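thread: overnight batch results

M.L. [08:02]
morning all. the overnight job finished for the chain we discussed friday. pasting input first so we're all looking at the same thing
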Amino acid sequence: MIGERLLELRKDADLTQDDLAEILKINKHSISSYERDKSEPPDAIKIAIARYFNVSIDYLLGITDDPKPIDQTTSVFRLPARFPRKALPELTNYIEYLMWKAHNNK
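M.L. [08:03]
and the structure it wrote out:
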């Protein structure tokens, strides 16, 4: 999956394999190998690719189709895997209540 995404990102940015190799400070053959899924880039290169194209690692790996990286200023609370979706409005109300309570207890 990373090969397909990398090829798409590179072409959308109007870059050649040589251009991207120079940007990432690796050789063109590595870019070609990654794009054809013949080899997988090391984690440091995945991070460099994600930063350069401003996409998430999850997007590169095909875990999500949303290319936007997570906003580092936003806190994320992971719900349990079996959390019932129909309970989300109640959870949201409770979070709002806790925020109100914290604000009013200052």
